[in-house]
Amino acid sequence: MLNKISVIGGDLRLVTLVEMLKKDGIFVYTYGLEKAENNFGIVCNTLEEAIKNSEIVIAPIPLSSNGETINAPFSKNEILIKDIIKNLEDKTFIAGAIRQDTLKSLEEKNIQVIDMLKREELAVLNAISTAEGAIQIAIEQTARTLHRSNVLVMGFGRIGKVLSHMLQGIGANVSCEARKPADLAWIKAYGYNPIHLNNLDEHLNEFDIIINTIPFVVLNETNLSKVKKDCLLIDLASNPGGIDKKEVKKQNLKFVWALSIPGKVAPVTSAEYIKDTLYNIFKEM
């Protein structure tokens, strides 16, 4: 097991991860967590100092929202991705949702890169926290029970599968949108109402809640006009999301763009998932 790790930036998940790693006897050098209430790592004054002390550098999940700076809500300063990259020689860099342009820059410098969100074990377990968070939002943002509400889940990937299962358990009337015949067959087998993407417009006015998991715009100006005015729209997909944000504002629809839910609703559990995935990676290394 490696005994020195650097953690740069991140949300409550990484703050909690630092504590867990320290309890396991690992020296954790941190930068960009100085505003966290509890930072159990070895706090470094500079980015260079934090990175040079270990072979493994762990960064946020997702890494960045704008492609230039990393997500670091507990940092006093912005942390530029390019500044991290120039200090990563002979290191292994681990983060999540790494953009293609950033990945290219890392690979050009022969830096070993691991995107944690491409690890199936973490992606599946993260889906649980995301689904629970989406349900929490739906409960808080509506004036009716989810039981017997008509709910559409758009996309039938990991999150869509877990979310649909949870919603059905609550007693919601669950419909699922998909394109692939295999997905539509599984939707039917699980007892949900299958809706093909090509037929989506015909059904949009039936739902009290629509939750999107598709990472490209599906609900646009044309089909958003068919949504009920009191329908709650929740977008779980990363930028640009699957719901046209300018259009929902223009049409005055109720909309929540819910990003990085695991770090907000279940940071301890999410940190446990990250730690377990890290240890799997270390064994493979």
How is the topology of this model organized?
Elements: E1 4-8, H1 12-23, E2 27-31, E3 42-43, H2 47-52, E4 56-58, H3 81-85, E5 92-95, H4 100-108, E6 112-115, H5 120-141, E7 150-154, H6 158-170, E8 173-178, H7 181-189, E9 193-196, E10 209-212, H8 221-224, E11 232-235, H9 245-250, E12 254-257, H10 261-265, H11 267-284
Parallel strand pairs: 1-2, 1-4, 2-3, 4-5, 5-6, 7-8, 7-10, 8-9, 10-11, 11-12
Helix pairs in contact: 1-11, 5-6, 5-11
Q: What's the name of the CATH homologous superfamily of the largest domain?
A: NAD(P)-binding Rossmann-like Domain
At CATH level 2, the architecture of the largest domain is 3-Layer(aba) Sandwich
What oligomeric state best describes the polypeptide chains here? single chain
Rg on CA atoms, Å:
21 Å
Number of helices: 11
Poorly predicted regions are none
Distance between the termini: 10 Å
- Say how many strands there are: 12
Q: Could you tell me the strand content as a percent range?
A: 15-25%
Overall mean confidence score, pLDDT: 94
Largest sheet: 6 strands, parallel
Helix content: 25-40%
Using the coordinates shown, work out and report the CATH topology of the largest domain: Rossmann fold
Which overall shape is indicated by the principal axes computed on the Cα atoms?
A: elongated
Q: What is the top-level CATH class of the largest domain? A: Alpha Beta
Give the strand line-up of the largest sheet.
3-2-1-4-5-6
Structural class: alpha/beta
Q: How many structural domains in the coordinates?
A: 2
Which H/E pattern describes the elements?
A: EHEEHEHEHEHEHEHEEHEHEHH
